[in-house]
Each structure stands twice: as structure tokens, then as C-alpha cells.
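Example record

One chain of 153 residues, shown exactly as stored in the release files.
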Amino acid sequence: MATVADIMDSDPVSVAPDDDIKTVLDLLREHDLPGIPVVDPDRKVVGIITESDLVISDEDSDFHLPHYVNIMGGIVFLESMKHFEERAKKAFAASAADLMTADPLTVTTDDEVSTAARIISEKHHNRLPVVDGEGRLAGVVTRVDVLAALTGS
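Predicted C-alpha cells for this chain:
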């Protein structure tokens, strides 16, 4: 059975956590990519930015503070601040680290193609970062790569 190393793009475009949003957008546009891995100085995958990270959905477009009550001069929030904080961080993102989804799903170079296919299918991803044994970016595998390998195309 073929491994992910056999079908991956072994020279993927990536960004650093401190790269600005313009750099991220320019690379996505220049390379016609739907997503890009975020790597630290040692090339370890720390996140991924996909098209969905770049869009504020209709449900998130109503950007307001969570409901709260004022009790004896103090504010008590009636819902979690975590969702609000995550939306605010992405809405006002200045760097790749602000925008990325941390700790993304990955596959290793030694994984079988069927493993990548299962993850892509179950998690509805179009691309997965491929890492070596030390968690460093080794490539990217896409839904199309997997389908081609599984169908012998």
C-alpha cells in the first residue's frame, strides 16, 4: 500500500506564526491555495489557516458582548466569554497566530494513504499537513491526491 510520502506535495508553502495577515493572503492568492500550514522556526506544525478561518460567518457577524447582568456594581456574564474572545481574536487578527487553528490534524510520512483518506473524509478537510517523526512539516496531502492514489489515476 502507498504511503502519504508517495503522494504528498513535498515542497509546501507555509507561514510563520508572526507573519502578518497580508503575507498570508498574498501567499494563498499567489499559490491558489485553500489553506496554509503555520510552522515555528524549527518547522514544527503549530497551526493551519484555511479559507474558513478567513471568513466571518453570518452567525458570527452579529458581534456583541455576551449577555450580562449588573449586580451590586459588578458585571456577571451569563454565557461563556471564550466564544466571544475567539471571535474577537479572529476579527481583529494581526498575525497568522491570531487567525490559525492551533494543533491541526496531521498525518505522518509513513501513514498509509487510506489513513489520510479516512481523516479527510471523516473530518471534512481538503488538505492535511504531513509531518516527519519529529513533527516538522514534510509536505501537504490533499483530497485530490488521496482520491488519485486510491483510484489508481
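Notes: Helices lie at 4-7, 21-30, 58-61, 81-91, 96-99, 113-123, 143-151.
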